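Thread: quick sanity check before group meeting

JM: Hey all, I'm pulling together slides for Thursday and realized we never actually wrote out the predicted structure for the chain we discussed last week. Dropping the sequence here so it's in one place. If anyone has concerns about the input, flag it before I start.
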Amino acid sequence: MREDDYRPLNLSQIGALSKALEWSDSQIRQFESKYTSVWYNPRDETLRPSGTWTIECVAVVEQARGRGVGAALMRHIINEARAGGLESIGVSVTIGNQAAERLYQSVGFQPYVSYFSVYYDGVFPGTAKFRIRLSPDRIRV
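JM (edit): ok, ran it. Output follows.
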């Protein structure tokens, strides 16, 4: 991740990606246009990483929910991050996803910032960010 651009894809790498996908110049331009129409602000605070590691998506198949699978997965990730000497892990949750919030808090994540629906002009319910510190907290100024 570049410090000046929080968006999920670094567009300077589109050449390599488009080559692997065998895209034409027209397809590249179309992708870039659509991408920048969605992710128009490279420093959108809602995209700022939540931790040294960022968990992008957690899902448990319906038949296995409520059996501790998600918590076991999260504990494994936390242990791997600690073993790697990382400072923190972050994860974002769509506001209203109570099951995910309970899971993350059950393994030690704490909420630290929320962007409510009004931030997204009412077209998205909002985002709550959670983080777990793996090393002693540093004082932020």
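AS: nice. The helical segments are 14-21, 25-38, 69-83, 98-106. Residues 1-44 form one domain.
JM: adding both to the slides.
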